Amino acid sequence: MPPTLASVAALPQLGLRSLTGPLPDTAVVWVAVSELEDPTPFLEGGELLLTTGMRLTPAGAAGYVSRLVGRGVAGLGFAVGVIHDTVPGELLAAARDQGLVLLEVPRPTPFIAVGKAVSRMLAAEWYEDVTRAFRAQRELTRAALTGRDALVARLARLLGGWALLLDPAGGVLHAAPASAARRAGALTPELTRLRRAPGARGGEPPAARSTGAPSASVALSLPGEHIAVQRIGLGERPRGFLAVGTGAPLPHVAHTIVGAAVALLTLQSEAPRTGRDLRASLAALLLGRPADGPAVPRGPVRVLACAGGAAVLDALESDPAAGRGLALPLDGYVAVVVPDEASGTVESLLAGTGPIGVSDPAAADLPAALRQAGDALAAATRSGRDVVRHSELPGQGVLGLLDPRPARAFADALLAPLRAEDLVGTVRAYIAANGQGEAAARALGVHRHTLRSRMRRAAELLGRDPDDPAVRVELWIALAVMSNEESPIRHRGDSQSSAP
Hints:
With 500 residues, the protein is of the alpha/beta class. It is built from 16 helices and 15 strands. The longest helix is centred in the N-terminal third of the chain and has 36 residues, at 111-146. The radius of gyration is 35 Å and the shape is elongated.
């Protein structure tokens, strides 16, 4: 919340004095200086207006105050000792009559000092909002790792109110507290509005078709309660709705927190339906800068895909150096987006939480970076390494991209007939020689006719031609997988060392 008149007047260095009694908790959104008889065209409301009364006349005081009250200024600061030695009695009387806060500004206090003081207070409030929003995003992310019910419960506590997660039909999926479920029925008309999407399909009369973008949210003000409802999902049809209610209007930071919850729920609701590519695009939604969403580090970033789950979030919270990053739960791991220059520090911080995959630097294509980090994490998990960077994947060759268990099953099934007649070494030599019989025979130390006879038998057992390039690739992969898992392996000769 912005600073109040009372908090501004309480600053001892300014020496401000109220002439109209106790100061209310009216928010000061800015400080404006004007000597115009009617400054209201240049005001928006909520300002602390400062003046020396240069153009003020006794006859015009009441009208001047009336215009300021009508514009909604927070208060009027009148400098004494410049044009007027004291505040004119007509102005003071009009202010008291019309309910305008009037502050006396002493001669030693320049207007710029008041402006700077309020600016510092606004900056401090802004920083507190950003910090609170960041902490809330961390808490929501942690809750999302547990489930949607935990996320909804955490959101309700953060807002100091209630929260409802509704399915597309308006049914209650989760309510926090449980008593909030009774409010779902009253939200039905608002959900109907939120379901509208552009480009209505056939059969719908033109008058009923929406001509603009679908509403993303609606707000209701009821006696003693303020409610906000938002769509969940990216497509024309919502995947659900999130409703929250509080006793007072939501401040900006609360809207930011609700936006983060909506983004996380969208991610969870869409990902199981569409697979990893859409998860990447949804992550881009989170990692972008939606109006009410969490912020992304500016400049080139890296994505760290971490298998450590909640331990990753614990480690991030333990070190302020990681505070510029953004963590979000995906399917089976946590993606952490950090500035490129901070990636090494965060990587060291997360060491020991589990395998980590690191993307290449990315400026705009965050979905691609997310995929890179996921591929690197998969490689780290397969190889048992702590960290694998995407740039290292090409050096691992084709085998580094294969899941060990399916690859081993494939190799066992393909090579089983050859093992039965001890022909694996012959086929290995033939593949290594790129199908050149003479070279393969020399490598095995057998006659070329012996090699040819064995390869005919191998083709019969395999039911396919080893001279077919596609078959040769399959054999090469199977033999390479077996070589990685079984050592030593014979590279020379088979038990059939003589010509048939």
